[in-house]
């Protein structure tokens, strides 16, 4: 699939690919090891602002799933920055989603589905389907509601 086709799919979903952001601390945004690109966790941001909240307290599942979509968009932006082209993605290998959660919130997978579904919709099921973990945490950087990291096989 070409870059144009992937970006057209994203537009059809109501999204545009953002520019990759610089790290907020002492790490690199991605590491290419052989044909595997490891992308550091991307927090949920929209319109230049962090999407904040804690599931089960201040933000709902649907809104947080949309935040997870933004995390997935930032992952794709980092892949493009690392490789020069989204068309080089041969497979989304694994996503790990972290969800800021109250102690009695147990629907983390429903939140992270937002990111997973975006990968499949943008890249197609053969490339976009992936292994995944969804983890509830007490807090995320900058009060973010969701953070997702990813591993991609690059052609």
TrEMBL record:
Residues 7-143 form the Endoribonuclease L-PSP/chorismate mutase-like domain. PANTHER family: ENDORIBONUCLEASE L-PSP_CHORISMATE MUTASE-LIKE DOMAIN-CONTAINING PROTEIN, ENDORIBONUCLEASE-RELATED. This is RidA family protein.
């Amino acid at each position: 699939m070409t870059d144009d086709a992937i970006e057209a799919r994203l537009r059809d979903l109501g999204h545009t690919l953002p520019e990759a952001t610089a790290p907020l601390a002492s790490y690199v945004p991605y590491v290419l090891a052989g044909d595997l690109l490891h992308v550091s966790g991307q927090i949920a941001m929209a319109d230049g602002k962090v999407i904040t909240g804690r599931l089960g307290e201040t933000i709902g599942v649907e809104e947080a799933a949309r935040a997870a979509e933004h995390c997935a968009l930032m992952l794709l932006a980092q892949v493009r920055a690392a490789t020069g082209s989204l068309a080089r993605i041969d497979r989304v290998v694994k996503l790990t989603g972290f969800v800021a959660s109250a102690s009695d919130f147990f629907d983390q997978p429903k939140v992270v589905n937002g990111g997973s579904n975006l990968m499949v919709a943008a890249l197609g099921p053969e490339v976009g389907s992936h292994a995944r973990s969804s983890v509830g945490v007490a807090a995320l950087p900058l009060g973010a509601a969701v953070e997702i990291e990813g591993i991609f096989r690059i052609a």
